[in-house]
Each structure stands twice: as structure tokens, then as C-alpha cells.
Amino acid sequence: MDEKILAASAKHPIVAGQVYKYGTAGFRMKADLLPGVSFRVGLLSGLRSRKLNGQAIGVMITASHNPASDNGVKIVDPMGEMLEQEWEAYATRLVNCPSDQDLLETYKALAAQLKIDVNAPGRVVYGRDTRPSGHGLVVALAAALGATNTEHTDYKILTTPQLHYLTRCVNTEGTPKSYGQTSEAGYYQKFSDAFVRALRGKKIQGQLTVDCANGVGGPKFSEMLKVIPKLATGFDVKVVNDDVLRPEVLNLEASGPVACGADFVKTKQRAPQNPKPVLGVRCCSFDGDADRLIYYWIDPDTGFFMLDGDRISSLAASFIGDLVHSAGLEDDLRIGVVQTAYANGASTNYIEKHLQLPVVCTPTGVKHLHHAACQFDVGVYFEANGHGTVVFSQEAMRIFRAKEPQSPAQKDALETLAAVGDLINQTVGDAITDMLMVEVILAHKGWTLKDWAMTYTDLPNRLVRVEVGNKDLFQATDAERRLSHPPGAQDEIDHVVRKYTSARSFARASGTENACRVYAEAATRSEADELANKVAQIVKQFGS
Ligand code: G16
């Protein structure tokens, strides 16, 4: 096997002098830097599978919201969750080995250290988004799996959440915990059935325009629409920006270099311009691999209004909280909400004070939020950028099905909870199933987006991307709300923040892009903009 690994590695080298790091969502950078990374991730995922008694490990090749020229490789654990953190360091170690020989030795040393039999059975499943570079990265990945005799299945082009779903299905198939049929068709069927059940005969009102960022979400969502019964649900959808035949327009509008998709809508706080959203019509945007979701509409009187991840979170928490109450389960189940520092202060206040639910703050990255959410019976987690889901404990799902209802209202609440639990992808944030959940909640409440928007008023905020010489100089602490490095930077940020009323700002290095991000919120729009720009200046100065 040693010779096979050496020979295969020689064909898929890393780029000398490049430092690789397992970031917020795996390794992510310019695609031409990645073939060696993909090969080495193949070695590591095979090891991880063997460590976990041959359970399948998932690998997703995507760079999500990043430009088409980027790509990324990330590892998915057996139940569809993100790779255990301790293993991120092993991945970084393996990927940075300077030579093939060094790689082989590190691979064997890791196996010895973790007491893994490299000849035991291992299994890896993988998929990729629509980026053209994905194909070559899959070849490199498969070469490592072949060289190490690891069984592998190529699920080809998928959304990221579909790969997470399939990973869990492979590992639960034929057991009482079976998550669904292990196929793309199984994914459509499971969530479409749950959508119909969760609606409980209610009809969705008005048309929904879905901007798919010209990414993999377009064709996949269109596939799903084929199995959703339109008449029974009233689900009337117009899909836009679903061109995957011209890969260069990924995350861009088809007509030119203007961005679209969830990342654009959230960061620029404006709707995609082409096609122009129809005034008053309910709209939403996915990102490039369909794991983020942002809603918005253009009001004829007041203009663009956005409902981001914080809004989706509070909507889901309020709906599920009410159902748990109606089902008489408020003393049995702990509901909690997980956010990051990017959450608008008004949303945190609304969830804690109005919904009376606990809020936990974690660093950026769904891997952190997911973990914290699993500490609750019902854990609602969304990043402000629209990435998130609701996780239900096994016990919660069991109670929804087993509890004897004392009234028709209780029966209704229990059945709705069970259906909602099935509808929301439990493995990771999924724009498609999150969107179906939002549509269900709006139908139950009889709400328009305007009604939803009235629940609370966001503090004006601004998110800025700052390019710096070396983003790794910036190290954050306190759930990324403060900088510990470079020395002095946080003091300067504190100093400017103090000049504004009800203001908050923080800076951190992105884990997916070669840049820092600055967030600021303040009492007025102009103050939020001004504060964000001042903090961005500080970051620029300390990062050069
Ligand atoms: C990824 C992560 C998200 C994170 C985002 C931005 O999203 O999965 O949890 O919020 O990157 O991270 P950062 O600010 O560190 O660049 P995606 O949709 O790009 O995979």
C-alpha cells in the first residue's frame, strides 16, 4: 500500500510554499491550489472512517458563496455533522506535509497515534457543486481512496446539505434510526412528504421567487418541485438565476458581473437586480451550494426589506415554542436559540425578552452552532447570513409521536411538531428545507413577509469585507466579539465604539476568504456605516 500511496500522491501534489488551514468550512481557496489538498483529505477521511468502525465519512467539494475560481474541500462526520474539531488539526497536519514521503510517514504516524488499523474496512461518500474545477478535485480524492483500499461512492453533483443527508442515510440505513432513502430521489421524497404533512391542509398564499445564485440549488430545487404537489400545497414558485451551464456566472447575475444570491443580498442589503423582483412579491435567495437562505421583498412604499438568518431563527423559535406550549410539553422540553456575534442585537433581545428563550453565542461556523444547539431538546440555530437549521433530540421526536393527546388541539400540535421535525434537515443548514419550513410557518400564521417583519425592528447594521496583508494576524476571543491580536487593535476599536450610542462592533479574520470582516451596529444607519468604516480603517492599519 505504501508504494501505491506514494505513486498516487506524486500525481496530486500540493503547491510548495503554500500554507493550508482547515478553516470555517474546510480548506477553501483558489481551485488550482487544491488538488493535493483533496488527495490528502481522501487519506484523512479514510482514516476517520476506519477509526469509526467503517462508518461512512462524507467529503463535499464546494466553495459555496466564494467566486467561481475558488473551490473547497470539507469533511462530514457519519451523522452528517461537521468533522470533529480535534481532527481538523490532523487534516491540517497531513495536508501541509512538504513531500510525498513525509506525507506517507505522517499518515502512518497518525494511524499509530490514533490506534487505527489502516487495513480495516473504510468507506467515503462524496459530492461536488457545479464548479468546473470540482471534477479534477474528485479525481484526486478518488486516487487517495483507491490507493488506501477505501470503498467509495461518487454522488456527483449535489447541494452541500444533500451530501450531508446522504452521509447520514448511508450510516443509518436499515436501522431504527434510518434517516431516509440513500439517494437523491429519497431526499426529495422525504422532505416533500414532510412539507405536505406540516402544512396540514393549509395553503400557501402568493407566489415565491427563488434566486438560486446560478448555483447547484437551481437544478436541485427544480427536481424537488417535480415531487411537491402544487394543488394540495398552493406552492407557486418562480425559479430565477438557475443557469449552471455557464459556470462563470456562479453567484453572479446571468447578465454580467453583478452578484446575486444570499451572500450578496445579506452583505449589500439589496435585492438582485436582474431579473428585478416584482414589487410586493415574496422573494428569497440561496447561496452557491444552497445551504444559506435570505428572504426579502420590495415594498412599493418603503423599498427593500430583508429577513435574514436572525429573522428565520426567531420565526422558527416562536412557532415551535407555541406548538410545544399547545402540546403541553413546555415542562418536558428545553428550547434554546444559538447565534453568533453577527446576530442583530434586536433579535437577541426579542428572543430573550419576548419569546423568553435562552440564547447562546458561539464563534462563526455552523460546526460551532450545531454543537451548541444539540445541548437543547429543540435547538434553533441560524447565523445572520442565513445558514442554519433546527435540531430536535431523539427524545423530543419520540415524545411528539408517543404522547397521548388530551384534546384535538394537542393532537394537532403534536402532529405538526412531528412533521416540522421531519421537514427540517437535521444534519446541517439547508436552504431548501429551511425555505419549506418558512413557507409552512407563514401559511400557519397566515402572515405576509410584512407581518413577519413587524415582530421587531433591527438595529441598523453594516458588514464590511476588509482586505489586509496578513489576515492571520487577527485572532479573536470571547465568541469572536473581541480581538486578542494584534495587540492594541481591540483598544482602538473600543475607543471608537464608545463615541456612538447603542453601538457595537467587532472584527475577525474570515475562515473562508482571504480577508477580515467587520460588523457594526448603531442607533442610526449613518452611524452604523460610519462606525463600520472607522473600524475597517483600524483593521487595515493593523493588518498591513
Ligand atoms: C461558511 C460556513 C458558515 C460561515 C461562512 C462565513 O459558509 O459554513 O458557517 O458563516 O462560511 O464564514 P467566514 O466569515 O469565516 O468566512 P458557506 O456558505 O460559505 O459554506
Describe this structure in words.
With 544 residues, the chain is an alpha/beta fold. The protein has 4 domains: 2-157, 3-Layer(aba) Sandwich (Alpha-D-Glucose-1,6-Bisphosphate, Chain A, domain 3); 185-306, Alpha-D-Glucose-1,6-Bisphosphate, subunit A, domain 3 (Alpha-D-Glucose-1,6-Bisphosphate, Chain A, domain 3, 3-Layer(aba) Sandwich); 309-453, 3-Layer(aba) Sandwich (Alpha-D-Glucose-1,6-Bisphosphate, Chain A, domain 3), CATH 3.40.120.10; 461-543, TATA-Binding Protein, CATH 3.30.310.50. Helices cover 42% and strands 18% of the residues. It contains 19 helices and 19 strands. Strands 1-3-2-4-5 form a 5-stranded mixed beta sheet, with helices on both faces. It has a 5-stranded mixed beta sheet with strand order 7-6-8-9-10. A 4-stranded mixed beta sheet has the order 12-11-13-14, with helices on both faces. The longest helix has 19 residues, at 525-543. The protein is globular, with a radius of gyration of 23 Å. It starts with a helix and ends with a helix. Pathway: Nucleotide-sugar biosynthesis; UDP-N-acetyl-alpha-D-glucosamine biosynthesis; N-acetyl-alpha-D-glucosamine 1-phosphate from alpha-D-glucosamine 6-phosphate (route I): step 2/2. InterPro entries: A-D-PHexomutase_a/b/a-I (IPR005844), A-D-PHexomutase_a/b/a-I/II/III (IPR016055), A-D-PHexomutase_C (IPR005843), A-D-PHexomutase_C_sf (IPR036900), A-D-PHexomutase_CS (IPR016066), AMG1_II (IPR049023), AMG1_III (IPR049022), PAGM (IPR016657). Its EC number is 5.4.2.3.
The CATH superfamily label of the largest domain reads Alpha-D-Glucose-1,6-Bisphosphate, subunit A, domain 3
Q: What helical percentage do the residues reach?
A: 40-55%
**Could you tell me the radius of gyration in angstroms?**
23 Å
Do you know the CATH topology of the largest domain? Alpha-D-Glucose-1,6-Bisphosphate, Chain A, domain 3
The level 1 CATH classification of the largest domain is Alpha Beta
Count of alpha and pi helical runs? 19
What is the number of beta strands?
Answer: 19
Low confidence ranges: none
Instruction: Report how far apart the termini are.
Output: 46 Å
Beta-strand residue fraction: 15-25%
Major beta sheet summary: 5 strands, mixed
Shape: globular
Structural class: alpha/beta
CATH architectural type of the largest domain: 3-Layer(aba) Sandwich
Number of domains: 4
Output the strand order for the largest sheet.
1-3-2-4-5
Let me know the average pLDDT. 97
